[in-house]
Design a protein that fits this description.
about 190 residues; alpha+beta; seven-stranded mixed β-sheet; three-stranded antiparallel β-sheet; 10 strands
């Protein structure tokens, strides 16, 4: 009977601790959630993404709310604040907005090797940016452009793995076969000349 009470007390304490932890550290729900698809790091100057916006507080939305972005440098200095504004409509509190940014077409950043694209919403009716309004909680998402040769190679490799895995495997097998044939020929050539 003592063992049963001990287990009951143990599980009760664990349950209370989990409840306290969830209450204190649980996920807070922002008024607006933003997600970027497919990824947030780009190595080419022409950036195309889908921005998913979800209004958990639909009272913040009106027909004059637009999506835009700010361009920041490596040390978070503002390179260009005002950029293209995208109109969108909500369906069940959510919207998917295609975003196109061509770094070469923006004079303030075309020579930069690193640019942060900070997604923001602007309410043109009530005249405020969502990121600047302390009464609104919004998840922050940043798209990064980085001029990196290694990053470009990595990006191409990841894209190949995701989009054409069979062709990638066939190319790797072909390269391995060529290396193997080269080693066999080199070994025979070296053994004949000894």
């Amino acid at each position: 009977m003592k063992t049963y009470k001990g287990f009951s007390l143990y599980f009760l304490m664990v349950f209370i601790l989990l409840l306290v932890q969830q209450t204190c550290y649980g996920d807070s729900i922002n008024d607006v959630e933003i997600e970027i698809e497919p990824n947030t790091i780009h190595y080419y100057k022409n950036i195309e993404s889908i921005v998913k916006v979800k209004f958990n507080n639909e009272l913040l939305f009106n027909d004059n709310v637009k999506m835009s972005y700010h361009l920041l440098g490596k040390n978070s200095e503002v390179l260009k604040f005002e950029n293209v504004r995208y109109s969108f409509n909500l369906i069940n509190g959510e919207a998917k907005i295609p975003l196109v940014v061509d770094i070469d077409q923006i004079a303030e950043v075309q020579d930069e090797d690193y640019v942060e694209i900070v997604i923001d919403l602007v309410d043109e009716q009530n005249l405020y940016w969502f990121n600047d309004n302390r009464g609104i909680t919004m998840s922050e998402h940043i798209i990064v452009y980085e001029n990196s040769i290694f990053g470009r190679f990595r990006s191409i490799l990841i894209q190949s793995v995701n989009e054409q895995p069979i062709q990638l495997v066939m190319n790797l097998l072909y390269i391995c076969g060529l290396v193997y044939m080269y080693l066999i020929i080199a070994k025979r050539y070296n053994s004949e000349n000894i």
